From TrEMBL, chain A:
This is Hydrogenase-4 component E. The lineage of its organism: Bacteria, Pseudomonadati, Pseudomonadota, Alphaproteobacteria, Hyphomicrobiales. It is a multi-pass membrane protein. It comes from the Bacteria. The chain crosses the membrane at residues 20-42, 49-69, 75-96, 108-131, 151-168, 175-192, 198-219.
Length: 241, 673
């Protein structure tokens, strides 16, 4: 760690080398996040989905940690730690417990089948790249290449998370879609320099609270309707599915 | 602000404050025996003083004042200039008459607590509108006036249709305020300020000015009752208690006219040549449609409400002419047209209030507003009959009364239109003049019908036969207004001269001073062209009538011969065989209303031997409802039904909606930039 820091603040030659290294590694993590989002779209079993989600959280915390190093912003380490502890460990474990208690580990009914979902995901990634690169190009020199591409990847992750929420029928997988969306937000926030720690912590806590609330609701729904399929709610409301 | 507050401005503001205090007092005292005398007596005193003060303010210098109320960086800007003063005179004279009338009429009110708090509040709102000198204060006062009158419209909520009338009224009032708000927004955009002073300094240019004109026409026109925005007026005005109907019809529509004048003549900058055309056309259409519909009604107060639309049309024609002349550089003619409009504003306020008071008196005496249940009241209500005759003659524009003087001035202005350079105006103004002439003739028929059916003939119901004259307060209010009608008709020159400071302020030129003309004549343009002397006409009518009476009574033979009266070959003496409201209007209905209002008659003749009565059913529809408002309401309902499905989506569909909207916006962003 200390050695890398030295490189980051070393001689001009080292600086050029490290700038390229910083860029490449950040790019690698961000791209990995998008790839894992695709992996999540592909999963049709809840336990597998949870594992992939945990993996995404680990990669997110690595990415945030790398940003902390590159931007020399120690408070981002706290963010990385939060991501690691809550999103990679606590939330997946909690959800796994829920899945086990609800006995729904075998079901993930997708509304749209995997193939079209993947195609839509690719289109969304393309769209977010076009939008972000264009929009940030207007800002000009203020946004460096790293931040721009980071933002493009982050938007992709957000959109893929939303896509997951829309295409799944099961409440647990919708929760995971929501969490993955939030991962994208954190990626965007850390890519842009200067996000205060307070915001970071409050976002993390709001996600945790959302998890608790959703968890409670899941059990309530289950008690009431013997299922966590949200379509049952709609049938009860008299919805026209 | 450079302007200093004048005594009159402070007096007008204290009047507003005093009226608001009276409103509170009305709410507190409503159920007690003191409520009616305190509220109406107080309002009478306040409005009388305010009217006198406003009268002295017309030629006085402009007063201004900024109170630290309302929006912090603007404050409440108040200003009393000649135009405001003219309208304050109208408002407070009407208010004083209504208060005096209410002292007696209010005795018959079953639920005074629904009227007493809102009556002074309504007056306060109407007093505040002409004083406002920034958009916020203006709209606040305007809405206050609308809401207070709305509360009065639905005060008798148990009577059928009143609540619906209130709903239509509040909808149209909101629409009008919205239009005015947009107009003020455009006006403020030019100079960057919401005070009238800033707007005046930087008037809108190009299309913005035209849009302001249209918005002012919509906003003020919906309040004043221009066709097709008039639909609320014949519902709401009759629904209120009669003295409030008089205020709404006689005074509130004039406040709307004030709003139009203030925006278009004062704030919107120099007019384009064509600005007059939409105003003239709207006015002429309102004139004819209003009076034709008045002829079809069988409810006295509805007749009067529709007649208001006709008179508003006449006023707007005058204003449109003033715009056209002003834009073409004919200052004198513009001053004439503008004076005519203001004069008619004053006259109509007096005579329409008088007529509504009369209708209210008939309602008190007989309990009915349906013309076919009245008749023969001239013997039972002599005072009401005489003042109603004066009011009916005045509104039918018969000399020597005031209605004739102002309508004559409008026509004098129309006769000057060939001097206009633009062909669009050269052609449209005489057409509008022809429509107005038609409207004037139909108005005469309308009021002959109203007066003839209600006051002449024999009573058509027991209530009409047992009617008694109304109380002294009501009679005093009606007599006072009738006196104003006669005085303004005999001495129109005084009124015209009194209006000139307002005309000069807005047109830049004034009419020739009438006080210099010999024998109290009025000369609108030049002596060689036309002149009118109300006093002379009156003396001629009086002397010839006296002479005729003298000849008949003194010089005719004194021998008496008794014979049965001619019964038109129909010996049945039942009162229902008299001309009814429907049969009197039949010729005009058949000629005009068949196409315009799709008026249809259906006669149901029972077969011989059947004991069922024969029936005639007359149906007519208002084209504004049929072609504008009902389709609009249908459209809104269809859209609402469609949108209602959004309430029943599944959670995932809602998410998909959000998602779709987000992707769509991103796509737009990607393709657009």
């Amino acid at each position: 760690m200390d050695r890398t820091l030295e490189i980051a603040h070393g001689t001009p030659l080292d600086a050029a080398l490290s700038a390229s290294l910083v860029f490449d590694v950040a790019h690698l993590f961000a791209g990995a996040l998008v790839l894992i989002s695709f992996l999540m779209l592909y999963q049709d079993r809840l336990y597998a989905l949870l594992k992939v989600f945990a993996l995404q959280a680990v990669v997110l915390s690595l990415s945030v940690g790398w940003q902390a190093l590159a931007q020399d912003a120690p408070h981002l380490y706290v963010t990385a730690a939060i991501a690691l502890v809550f999103k990679a460990v606590v939330i997946p474990l909690a959800l796994a417990r829920m899945v086990a208690r609800l006995g729904i580990h075998r079901q993930v009914e997708t509304v749209v089948s995997i193939g079209p979902t993947m195609l839509a995901g690719i289109a969304l990634v393309a769209l977010s790249l076009v939008v972000m690169l264009k929009a940030t190009a207007a800002v000009g020199g203020a946004a460096d290449a790293l931040a721009r591409e980071d933002l493009a990847f982050a938007l992709s992750v957000v959109l893929l998370g939303l896509l997951m929420m829309v295409t799944r029928r099961n409440a647990v997988s919708q929760v995971i879609g929501f969490m993955s969306l939030e991962n994208g937000l954190i990626l965007a926030a850390t890519g842009a320099k200067g996000m205060p720690l307070v915001v970071e912590i409050s976002v993390a806590f709001s996600v945790l609270i959302a998890l608790i609330v959703i968890g409670i609701f899941l059990f309530r729904i289950r008690e009431r309707f013997d299922t966590v399929d949200v379509d049952a709610l709609d049938r009860f409301r008299g919805g026209r599915a | 602000m450079a302007l200093a507050p004048t005594v009159q401005l402070l007096a007008a503001l204290s009047a507003v404050a005093a009226l608001l205090v009276l409103a509170v007092a009305g709410a507190v005292l409503a159920r007690g025996p003191l409520g009616r005398p305190v509220v109406y007596g107080g309002a009478l005193a306040v409005t009388l003083l305010a009217a006198v003060s406003a009268l002295t303010a017309i030629p006085a210098p402009i007063g201004g004042l900024v109170l630290p109320l309302g929006i912090p960086w603007i404050g409440a800007n108040l200003r009393l200039d000649a135009l405001s003063a003219v309208f304050l005179v109208v408002v407070n004279l009407g208010g004083a008459a209504a208060s005096l009338y209410g002292l007696g009429y209010g005795r018959h009110d079953h639920a005074p607590e629904r009227v007493l708090p809102f009556f002074p509040a309504f007056l306060a709102g109407m007093n505040l509108v002409p004083l406002a000198a920034d958009a916020y204060t203006f709209l606040l006062a305007w809405e206050f006036m609308s809401l207070a009158s709305w509360a009065l419209v639905i005060s008798h909520d148990k009577e059928a249709g009143n609540v619906q009338a209130g709903l239509v009224y509040i909808l149209m009032a909101s629409f009008g305020t919205l239009a005015l708000m947009l107009a003020f927004g455009l006006l403020a955009a030019g100079g960057g300020g919401f005070t009238f002073e800033a707007m005046r300094a930087a008037p809108p240019t190009g299309w913005a000015g035209a849009v302001v004109l249209v918005l002012a026409l919509l906003g003020a026109g919906s309040k004043a009752g221009l066709v097709p925005l008039h639909v609320w007026l014949p519902l709401a005005h009759p629904a209120a208690p009669s003295h409030v109907s008089a205020l709404m019809s006689g005074v509130m529509t004039k406040v709307a006219v004030y709003g139009f004048i203030r925006i278009v003549f004062d704030l919107a900058g120099p007019p384009d040549w064509w600005w007059g055309i939409p105003v003239i056309v709207a006015g002429a259409i309102a004139g004819v449609v209003g009076v034709l519909q008045a002829l079809l009604q069988s409810d006295t107060k509805r007749v009067l409400a529709f007649s208001t639309i006709e008179n508003i049309g006449l006023i707007f024609v005058g204003l449109g002419l003033a715009l056209a002349f002003k834009a073409s550089g004919f200052g004198g003619a513009a001053a004439l047209a503008f004076t005519a409009a203001l004069f008619h504003v004053f006259n109509h306020a007096a005579m329409k209030s008088l007529l509504f008071f009369g209708a209210g008196a008939v309602l008190t005496a007989t309990g009915s507003r349906v013309m076919d249940r009245l008749g023969g009241l001239i013997h039972r209500m002599p005072v009401t009959s005489v003042v109603m005759l004066i009011g009916a003659a005045a509104i039918s524009a018969l000399p020597p009364l005031n209605g004739f003087a102002s309508e004559w001035l409008v026509f004098q202005a129309i006769l000057l239109s060939p001097e206009l350079p633009a062909w669009g105006l050269k052609l449209s103004v005489p057409a509008a003049g022809a429509l107005l002439a038609l409207a004037a003739a139909l108005a005469a028929a309308c009021f002959v019908r109203l007066y003839g059916i209600v006051f002449l003939g024999r009573p058509r119901s027991e209530q009409a036969a047992n009617a008694h004259e109304v109380d002294a307060f009501s009679r005093a209010a009606m007599i006072a207004l009738a006196a104003i009608c006669v005085a303004a008709g005999l001495f129109p020159g005084l009124v015209i001269d009194a209006l000139q400071p307002a005309v000069t302020a807005l047109i830049g030129v004034k009419m020739p001073a009438q006080s210099e003309v010999a024998w109290l004549s009025i000369v609108p343009v030049a002596e060689s062209r036309s002149s009118y002397n109300g006093l002379l006409v009156f003396l001629f009518i009086a002397s010839s009538a006296l002479l005729t009476a003298f000849i008949i009574h003194r010089l005719a033979t004194g021998a008496v011969r008794r014979a049965p009266p001619w019964d038109c070959g129909f010996p049945n003496a039942d009162p229902v065989t008299q001309y009814s409201a429907g049969s009197f209007a039949q010729p005009i209905r058949r000629v005009f209303a068949r196409t315009l209002f799709a008026a249809r008659e259906r006669v149901e003749m029972p077969p011989p031997g059947s004991l069922a009565p024969a029936r005639i059913e007359i149906t007519a529809r208002d084209p504004a409802w049929a072609f504008l408002f009902l389709p609009l309401a249908g459209l809104v309902e269809r859209i609402a039904t469609r949108a209602n499905r959004l309430q029943y989506l599944t959670i995932r569909q809602y998410l998909a909606l959000v998602f779709g909207a987000l992707v769509l916006l991103l796509l737009v962003l990607a393709l657009w930039t």
